[in-house]
Amino acid sequence: MSKRDWRKLDESDVRVRPGKGSRPRSKRRPDHADAESAMVIGVDRGRWTCALETGVVVTAMRARELGRTPVVVGDQVGIVGDTSGQPDTLARIVRVEERTSVLRRTADDTDPFERVVVANASQLVIVCALADPPPRTGFIDRCLVAAYAGGLEPVLCLTKSDLASADSLLALYTELDVPVIVTRFDEEPAELRARLTDTVSCLIGHSGVGKSTLVNKLVPDANRAVGVVSGVGKGRHTSTQAVALRLPEGGWVVDTPGIRSFGLAHITPDDIVKAFPDFAEAAEECPPGCGHLGAPEDPGCMLDELVPDAPGRLASLRRLLASRAGLDDHAD
């Protein structure tokens, strides 16, 4: 090529070999119409254990197209790939269905990061010992708040009734109409078993309250570890991960790790009041930002004026609101 011809060249004359990634990616994604429905029953280090509607249990990974979509115990998912359930096989979760309920918590009341404990449970069974360790009403109240805000029906299960009476604790929750089941170590939990049959229920409670003991009675082949209460009155963690266990009579029970505190940073006072139809309409007349605690914290709260015929129920609601706001001295 002469010098004169070289000067006539421009960028359009340069040949560029296309790279491997130059082909535009299609935004179309397969709809996976053949995906099988399953429920997530366990999570462990990037692998999800799922129960198909046929009863087969498979191990699955999250499909790339889901990105960082959270998948938790209780989620209803669509699965493709090897769904035989044979050892060393791996399926893919390609779809997460919309949740009907969700139980969330934070590490404390200032933590902005929500942790989803379980999805799609219809009941939250709050397990509390009547003694050894002693009951912590603040913790019960916070679990009630999380249940109401997440769309779960709360159930209070009082264990170790052979060690202490349940009367004084029952009186605190009469106005809230929370179902209460009382159990003891030397008896079968027949009433609780009937309550859980054909539902998805989540059990939550402090370590040492007898939650794993209950699970072992409800699901004989569960083999959940059972620990002892420490000398300072707090239990030792015996369940390390949330796991859903199939009940022999039908339904599922989700056993969660024992926890020491229940943060509610993600829940507003209005979230709680909405769970009480008799107060929700009246709360709409409250000023913006009202915590519904009444005077002196919320002097403009309208609940006292608009719902005067339920003072006991209002006091119980405000106890829950105070627990959510961290004003309860026994929040843990």
Topology, pairings included?
Layout: H1 3-7, E1 36-44, E2 47-52, E3 57-62, E4 76-81, E5 91-96, E6 102-105, E7 115-119, E8 123-129, H2 137-150, E9 153-159, H3 167-172, E10 180-182, H4 190-196, E11 200-204, H5 211-218, E12 243-246, E13 252-255, H6 269-273, H7 277-283, H8 303-306, H9 311-324
Parallel strand pairs: 3-5, 8-9, 8-11, 9-10, 11-13
Antiparallel strand pairs: 1-2, 1-4, 2-3, 4-5, 6-7, 12-13
Q: What do these coordinates show?
A:
Helices cover 21% and strands 22% of the residues. A hairpin with a 4-residue loop joins strand 2 (47-52) and strand 3. It has a six-stranded mixed β-sheet with strand order 10-9-8-11-13-12. The relative contact order is 0.12. Mean pLDDT is 85; it is low at 225-239. It is globular, with a radius of gyration of 26 Å. The protein is of the alpha/beta class and 332 residues long. Helix 2 crosses helix 9 (311-324). It is built from nine helices and 13 strands. The termini are far apart. The longest helix has 14 residues, at 137-150. Residues 119-260 form the EngC GTPase domain. Residues 1-36 are annotated as: Disordered. This is Ribosome biogenesis GTPase RsgA. It comes from Lentzea flava. Residues 110-262 form the CP-type G domain.
